[in-house]
Amino acid sequence: NTKAQCEGRRAEKKEQIRSLKRKLKTEEYKDIDERHRRKMIEYETTTIAVEDLEKYHSALDKALLRYHGMKIADINKIIRELWTLTYKGEDIANIKLESGQEKGSRAARSYNYRVVMTKGGAELDMRGRCSAGQRVLASIVIRLALAETFCLNCGVMCLDEPTTNLDYANKRGLAVALAQIIANRASQTNFQLVVITHDEEFVTMMKNELSAHSGFSMPERYFQVSREEGSDGKHYSKIHAIDWDEL
């Protein structure tokens, strides 16, 4: 009986072997060793490529963080110079930009920027702690610093009503800063500063401050936009070119 059982199991195993051999000859398993070899090569190559990309991504991420830090430092340097030049009050020694990185994956990284002022030796968020004039001046100074840092090849800067809420001293400080920027960028062929204002006193300040600089040509005229009534009873905007000497 034991022998018969062994013979039976042996015959069963032989049949399984024949079945597997027939299966290996089907289209599904044809050249399976070669196909397996190729897939293993693809897998190993992909694994190596993913590891390399992770290294490159990490290096790029660190480089961007360093670049971001360098640019913030450049912007804050210009902000400090412009603030010292323009702000005539004594309560705020300096302002600067600070950025806080939000938590999250590297792919979704973002930054929260805030304006910080140095007041009485302490650093405080400027939001909610300054006057309207200080906010306006800080906004203009920061925009000028951003333009100086990032827009050297884009020479057009436009300021719309920059003297809103500014007192006489800070208005004059702004005129000094703008005149200095114009003088420094005079050699740039595509540089143009457009100021839109109702403040004729500020225009006069700009003229006087520009006259104090040398090495560039003074603007020949400024343009005055007025609203006049036509013969048909309708009102039209008119642009008049006015010589600087008429100020």
Could you characterize what this model shows?
The chain has helices at residues 2-24, 32-86, 132-150, 168-184, 200-211, and strands at 94-101, 111-119, 122-125, 156-160, 192-196, 221-229, 235-243. By secondary structure, it is an alpha+beta fold. The strands form three sheets. The protein has a three-stranded antiparallel beta sheet. A two-stranded parallel sheet has the order 4-5. Helix 2 packs across helix 3 and helix 4 packs across helix 5 (200-211). The radius of gyration is 36 Å and the shape is elongated.
Name the beta content range.
Answer: 15-25%
Largest sheet: 3 strands, antiparallel
Give the spatial strand order of the biggest sheet. 1-2-3
* Approximate shape: elongated
Number of strands: 7
- C-alpha Rg (nearest Å): 36 Å
What helical percentage do the residues reach? Answer: 40-55%
Distance between the termini: 127 Å
Total DSSP helices? 5
Order of SSEs: HHEEEHEHEHEE
Low-confidence stretches: none
Overall pLDDT level? 85
Given the helix and strand composition, which structural class is it? Answer: alpha+beta
